[in-house]
Amino acid sequence: MIEEIVTDIEECQDPRDQFELLIELGEQLEELEEKWKCEQFRVQGCTSNVWLVAIPDQKSRSGLSFKAGSDALLVKGLVALVLFLIRDLTASEIAGYDFEAKFDQLGLARHLSPSRSNGLKSMAERVRLLAAGIQTPG
User: Fold this and answer.
1) What is the pLDDT confidence band of residue 10, given thresholds at 50, 70 and 90?
2) What residues form DSSP beta bridges with 69?
3) Model-level pTM?
4) Which helix (H) or strand (E) holds 39?
């Protein structure tokens, strides 16, 4: 289901349809536990509240389990997209992942407001930092 939504986002030319798909993707995101919804895990640079955390997980290729949430539907979809893009990567691959090129390929920048585009870049940078071992909870 998630793979299909991302494929549809890639192929979508209408910004309204793309936003609807992103919201649908966000609805697939597991609800973030309240203990992670604090300032320590809030993504700076986002207009909406976005929380992003990486928990050590030896079953994952990256050694991390990423959890995220937002109080805005579209933004929750954007963070779900970010996590979907890195789901099968190692920590070093995530740290070097070219999110911007992928966002350009998806056409997100031309459809998002400047503040949402900055927030999306902030989410991607936060994921890179978490994969590099910065700010993971113990």
Assistant:
1) confident
2) 51
3) 0.89
4) none
Half-sphere exposure at residue 106, Cβ-oriented, CA atoms within 13 angstroms = 27
Q: Give the per-residue pLDDT at 134.
A: 63
pLDDT digits (tens, 9 = 90+) for 15-47: 889 899 999 999 999 999 999 999 999 999 888
**CA–CA dist 10, 94 (Å, integer):** 20
The mean pLDDT value for 108-134 works out to: 89
Backbone angles phi, psi at 11, to 5 degrees: -90, -10
- What H or E segment, with its residue span, contains residue 21? helix 15-27
Domains, the chain: 2-131 (3.90.1010.10)
- How far are the Cα atoms of 20, 57, 60, 101 from residue 105, in angstroms, in the given order? 18, 30, 27, 6
Q: Is 12 a catalytic residue?
A: no
Q: Which entry of 22, 43, 46, 123 is annotated as an active-site residue? A: 46
Beta strand residue intervals within the chain, DSSP E: 50-56, 64-70
Tokens of 30: 């597991």
Token duo for residue 68: 């995220």
- Helix (H) or strand (E) holding 63, with range, is none
